[in-house]
């Protein structure tokens, strides 16, 4: 979890590959309306996120019910969003990716085809409620370092 540009997809894919687990990118679950809204530079509201979080929760529950491992990359910026994702479940852990704002802006500027552009970063940072119970990782490290740290901390 983390704001746009923190490396959720990059690190999530690397972790999933190392563990040979499925990877899910929450960006793929946004409605076309939400993508259009973000592409235009308009931040999503809590109401905009409700169906998106519900579909991600369903994906998590399905994996847990099947006893299938899963790596999910999701912003999960607020505590209420994280609660919605894991409501009624167990065995879900969060990794909070952090990086300086300048790094985040630089990363977002180099993703011309992605809907999350640098103009959304300010609202993401304002919305962010850093989790107290997540593994916090410096996202300026190389993917292999991040993967190693997550595996070590979670015993994977």
Sheet with most strands: strand arrangement: 1-2
- Strand-residue proportion: 5-15%
Query: Tally of extended strands?
Result: 4
The CATH level-2 architecture is identified as 3-Layer(aba) Sandwich
Using the coordinates above, name the CATH class: Alpha Beta
C-alpha Rg (nearest Å): 15 Å
Return the structural class. Answer: mainly alpha
SSE order, one letter for each helix or strand: HEHHEHEHHEH
The biggest beta sheet, please?
2 strands, parallel
As for the CATH topology, it is Rossmann fold
- Shape label: globular
Number of domains: 1
What is the CA-CA span between the terminal residues?
18 Å
What's the helical proportion of residues? 40-55%
- Contiguous runs where pLDDT drops below 50 for at least 5 residues: none
With helices defined by DSSP (H or I, 4 residues minimum), what is the helix count?
Answer: 7
Could you report the average pLDDT, rounded to the nearest whole number?
91
CATH superfamily: P-loop containing nucleotide triphosphate hydrolases
Question: Would you give an account of this structure?
Answer:
The protein has one domain (8-154): 3-Layer(aba) Sandwich (Rossmann fold). The protein has helices at residues 8-19, 32-39, 46-65, 79-86, 101-109, 121-127, 143-154; strands at 23-25, 71-73, 95-98, 135-138. The chain has a two-stranded parallel ribbon with strand order 1-2. The protein has a two-stranded parallel ribbon with strand order 3-4. The mean pLDDT is 91. The radius of gyration is 15 Å and the shape is globular. The protein is built from seven helices and four strands.
């Amino acid at each position: 979890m983390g704001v746009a540009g923190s490396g959720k997809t990059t690190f999530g894919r690397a972790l999933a590959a190392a563990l040979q687990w499925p990877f899910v990118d929450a960006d793929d679950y946004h409605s076309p309306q939400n993508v259009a809204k973000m592409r235009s530079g308009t931040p999503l509201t809590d109401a905009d996120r409700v169906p998106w979080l519900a579909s991600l929760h369903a994906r998590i529950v399905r994996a847990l019910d099947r006893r299938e491992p899963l790596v999910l990359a999701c912003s999960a910026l607020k505590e209420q969003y994280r609660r919605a994702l894991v409501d009624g479940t167990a065995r879900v852990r969060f990794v909070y990716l952090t990086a300086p704002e300048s790094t985040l802006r630089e990363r977002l500027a180099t993703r011309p085809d992605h809907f999350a552009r640098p103009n959304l970063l300010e609202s993401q940072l304002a919305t962010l409620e850093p989790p107290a119970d997540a593994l916090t990782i410096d996202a300026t490290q190389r993917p292999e370092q991040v993967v190693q740290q997550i595996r070590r901390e979670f015993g994977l």
